[in-house]
Amino acid sequence: MQRMFDQVRAVASSDAYVLLSGPTGTGKELVAHAIHHRSPRAKGPFVQVNCGALPSGLLESELFGHEKGSFTGAIRQHKGKFEQSDGGTLMLDELGEMPLETQVKLLRILESGRFQRVGGTAEIQVDVRVIAATNRTLRKEVDAGRFREDLYYRLNVFEIALPPLRERTEDIPLLVDHFVSLFAKKHSKAVTGAHPEAMTALAAHPWPGNVRELEHVVERAVILAKGVQIRQFDLPQSATVSKQTPTLPPEGQTIADSLRSLERRMVIEALQAEQGVQARAARRLGVSRANLNYRIQKLGLRVKDIQYE
C-alpha cells in the first residue's frame, strides 16, 4: 500500500492520464479520489461514470451530453460528464466494458479536448483529466479485438496496479484500524480497535471481495461490538473462515483437549463481549442460558474472575 501511495503522490501533481487496474473491490475509486484531491485540480469537480452500466447509446449521451430533440425522450439539452468535469477530473470506471463505437469518440476527445453533443454540431472544448479504471487486463482485451490499441496506449500513460487483498495481507491491520475509526464515528460507537484474535481471523481470511468486503465486515462488527474492541464473535462466520487448512492438535494433545480449549475460549469471549451478562452471551453462542451455565461449570470457569473491559 505504501508503494501505491508513493505512486499516487508522484502522479497527482502532473496532468497525466492514469489507468487503475485490479480486481473488483480493491479500492480503485478511493485511489482516484486521492489523486484528484492531491492534484492542482482539487478545487474542481470530481465526476464518475460507470462505463459498463449503460448501453452504447445512453453511455454516449451520458459522456458527451445531447441536444434537445436529438432522440426520443430528449426533451431538453443535457450536459454530459465531460462538460460537468471541466476543470476537474473524470473517472471512467469499468473502462473495459465500453463498446468499441464509443471508444472511437473517447479517443478523439482525449487527443483534442473537443467533442460534440449527441445530435449537435457545435464543437465544445473542455479541460479534463481522465482517470480510467478496469478489472480486466486491457492488453488481453486489445489482443482479443475488444479494445482499441490506440486508446489503450493513450490512457495507459501511468498505470497503478492494485493487487487483491489476499496478496497484501500486511495491509489488513492498517485497513481495519482505518475502517474502525471511520465507522465508530459514523455510528457513534466507542470502538477503538480489534481484539488480537479478531485481527488474526481477519488476516487469515482470503477476502474474495477485497477491500470492499473488508469494509463491510468491519462496519457490521463495529455496529455489533459491545466494548471498545471488535471481538471474533462480532464477525460474520464467512469472515472467520481461514485460508489455512485445519491443522492437527499439538503433539501430546488429543482432539478432545483441543476442542475443550476452543470451547473454553469461545465461552470466555462471549462473556467478555457481553460484559458478563450470561443471557446475552448464550444468545451469541446459540445455546440456552441453562446450556451455557452447564458449560461454564463443566469447564471450571469462575465468571467473576473473567476480565472485562
Account of the protein in words:
By secondary structure, the protein is an alpha/beta fold. It contains 13 helices and nine strands. Strands 2-3-6-1-7 form a five-stranded parallel beta sheet. β4 (114-115) and β5 (124-125) form a beta hairpin. α8 (172-186) crosses α10 and α12 (278-285) crosses α13. It is elongated. The relative contact order is 0.11.
In short:
This protein has 309 residues and is an alpha/beta fold.
Strand order of the largest sheet: 2-3-6-1-7
The chain-level mean pLDDT equals: 88
Strand segment tally: 9
Structural class category: alpha/beta
What's the total helix number? 13
Shape: elongated
What separation lies between the terminal Cα atoms? 33 Å
Helix content: 40-55%
- The arrangement of helices and strands along the chain is HEHEHHEHEEEHHEHEHHEHHH
Biggest sheet overview: 5 strands, parallel
Which spans of ≥5 residues are poorly predicted at pLDDT below 50? none
Computed over alpha carbons, the radius of gyration is: 26 Å
Strand content: 5-15%
What labels would you give this structure?
309 residues; alpha/beta; five-stranded parallel β-sheet; two-stranded antiparallel sheet; 13 helices; 10% strand; elongated
Task: Explain the layout of strands and helices.
Layout: H1 2-12, E1 18-21, H2 28-37, E2 46-50, H3 56-64, H4 81-84, E3 89-93, H5 100-112, E4 114-115, E5 124-125, E6 129-134, H6 138-143, H7 149-155, E7 158-161, H8 172-186, E8 193-194, H9 196-204, H10 210-224, E9 229-230, H11 255-273, H12 278-285, H13 289-298
Parallel strand pairs: 1-6, 1-7, 2-3, 3-6, 8-9
Antiparallel strand pairs: 4-5
